[in-house]
Amino acid sequence: MLGLKVARRQLLCALSCLLLLPSAPGYSFRNCIQHARHNGTFQCVHRFLTRVSSAVSDLPSSTLHLNISQNRLTLLPKGSFHRLPGLLSLRLDVNRLKSACCGVFSNLTRLLTLNLSHNSIAHLTDPDFRGLGGLKHLLLHHNRLATIQPDTFASLASLQILVLSDNELQNFSGVILAVTALGNLTQLDLTNNRLGSLRHATSLPHSLQSLYLCNNSLATFDCRRDFLNLNFTLDLSNNRFSQASEFSNVDLWNVRLLILSNNPLNVSVFLRSANVDLRRVVYSGLALGSLGQLSDFCRQLGGKPMKSLVLQGNQITFLTAQALAQCPPITAWDLSRNQFMSIGCLEFVSKRQHVVSFIVEHNKIQKMASCFKEGRTSTFPNLTHLSFRFNRIFTISPHAFSYAAHLQTLILSINNIAIVNPMAFSNLTHLLQLRLDNNLITDIHQETFRDLRSLRILNLRNNRISIIFREVFANLNNLDILDLGGNKIRSLTSLSFSGLHSLSKLYLDRNYIAHIRSEIFSNLLSLGVLDLASNWIRYNTALVATSPFVNLTKLYILKLHSQQPYGINIIPPRFFKGLIALRALYVGQNKMSVSDGGFEDLVNLRSLSMPDTCNGIHSPNPGIFKNLRKLEWLNLENVGLRFMCVDILGGLSNLKTLSLGKNAIQSINRTVLECLPSLTYLDLRKNPFPCTCGNTWFQNWSLSNPRVQVVYFYNQTCADQPTEYLYKFDPRICYLDIGHLMFQITMPILMMYMLLPIIYKKGYWHMKYGFYILRSWLHDQRGRGDGQQSYRYDAFISYNSNDEDWVLRELVPNLERKGPQLFKLCLHHRDFELGKYIIDNIVDSIYQSRKTICVMSRRYLESEWCSMELQLASYRLFHELKDIIILIFLEKIPEAELSTYHKMRKVMRKKTYIQWPSDVEAQKLFWVKVRDAIKGSSCAKERGPPVQS
Fold first, then answer.
1. Mutual orientation of helices 864-880 and 738-783 as an angle, nearest 10°?
2. Under CATH, what is the fold of the domain 776-943?
3. Across-strand partners of 826?
4. What membrane topology is annotated for this entry (predicted)?
5. How much of the chain, in percent, has pLDDT values that exceed 90?
6. Which residues pair with 258 in a beta bridge?
7. What is the β-pairing status of strands 825-826 and 793-798?
8. What is the model's pTM?
């Protein structure tokens, strides 16, 4: 009965495969991976590629996004991307490119983003970007650009963002001249170059919204007065502006935001002399540390309201109300990166009713003091955002934030908070987000969050909380996200999360939770995400009374991976009962097995990740995934699989992505793949496939299937022959049978009847050609005493253009310039007559040369022109009865690869068949043989008139 069921399933699988099989061409890519969920997106990263063609040669023309970063590319030959006209983004960063010349991107008319950063590009010209009329983002940071040609970006009419930071640019005028015509440019980044002057010959594009000139060597405004008078952000931070009077020489009144951080400026002089709206300046890093300077600073700002006042890095240690009394109304304060030890209750801030945001990050604050005073109302009625990140706060006193009753966001992350008074957050009834992550909190109490009735996000990650007291979150009825990851929680009770009726995301990862029960989550009826990864959950028996998730009917993501120290061990049956809405389950990095029916309740599961669950070499139970008919993504990497069984994977008709890397699979079950009609992505890397006849079908299937990408199939080596590749395995050895044996027996008999015709058919021209060679030799011997005919050249060189480098580097110098006897050679590119038909040039050159030297290689044999030259030279042999052909073989070419005509030439005298040796000493003898074969003088042209063809 079981066998009948399996046969029926296999038949259904085969039928569904035939019905759903698309007719698109097959694909497996040599050096790229197509994103499993985004067709048209390819990653070719960390492949040690030295040529672009290695990445793009087998990519489809429909490719949209291509990443070839972090390789070893040095050149971009013209036409590198001619097969990918629809590219939208191209990443070539972190390579060794020195240029982008020759219009390599000319056909990428749809390209929007081009990343050439982190290379060694030193020069750019207009042809480099020709054809990129639609490009919007060009990233060239971290290169070696020293100058920019005026027409470099002339073709980039749509360019919006140009990043030239971290180069060696010195000529600001040249850069502006190159971008002035870019009518859509919004951002120009020249950060961290060598600019020392703002001289210019043209104006900035009026579309510019941001100009970054920070980290250069600018000290003066040697530009036109109105040059920078645009509505944009101008970043001049980390330069050398020391004379504040310089700012009176330019008109900066329309600048949207001026950043002057870390310049040696006298701020008081700047405030009095600068032609700029002082409310639009960032005053960070300008040494405004003293109260007197701050008082004068506020007075200079005037009384008009300011959106923000940024005073980062000014070495301010404390503030008083008197020092800031004359400051205008300010909406957002930023006092980060100063030296505050205490901030009090912000008494020093004037015009408090205007304050909406207050940031005091990266200081030395150690305590949040109590700010409660009987009968006093909120002193900051509109303050909604407050941040004290990166301080040294240890204690939060009661009513520490009573001055901001309408606070919505409170950030206290990355401090040393260990003591939180239960009344610390009292009366913050409007608070929506509270961040207390990365501190030293050990205890939280019900009173701590009692007043936070509007709270939506509570982050307590990376503290030292070990106990969740009962009903500690009882008043947080509106809480949406609770993050308790990275603590020391060991146990949870039925009242740990009571009151959290609106909670949708709960993070409990990296704790010490050993047991979970349904009562713990019984009140979390709206929960959608539950993260229990990296805890101590463990089951040693398949007998579990009730599923801990039985009430979580809305849960769509569950994470149970990486349980410590040994893993879950076993997933009991019906363990996931109740999770009818679950879409993604993560149970990897566990040493475990799955009981029968372990996943049967997950009928809506789309994604299942269970890599590294290897507990020895084994196979999952048959039917383990039988109810997961909607599954689309399955990761079974390193789970100890030895076989791909229909009973395990056969029912996954909607599966699109299957990862089976790092297993012990030695052969692929064809029926399994036929039962996965929706499969598009198959990862089988690092499996020990042997190069045997049993895998030949998979070899052919991987190279020609119309729908499935077999990841890096071309890199799959043979387990039994580590230096050989599976795709190169010759399947012809698999077809040895009785018929082949009979063929071997009858072949000698048939040869007896075929011998004479074969000799006549195959050897006729060999013998005839040898006869003419002999006649030519005898004729040559008789003619030596009669004088020799004069020629224009000693030898005509016949070669393929791919071997031109060897001809020019080895042949020409050794025959025309070195040795006891010099020869005059005839070369295509040098001696052919301009304007004459190429066939006439070839004939004339052969007949005006004493010899014809044929430089033989595989490319030579494939070239129609080279074969014609060899035939024309052979015709002269018959006409003049002289053997004038010399064959030089650059590589060893088997007899099977030579045509009949070339085989005839190979039977000629040994003196005209010369092999190029790789040994340097042997090459000296090689040239002696070549000279002896030519037997001519370097003064060929002087011996008489040339022979006419």
1. 50
2. Rossmann fold (3.40.50)
3. 796
4. Single-pass type I membrane protein
5. 55
6. 234, 281
7. parallel
8. 0.74
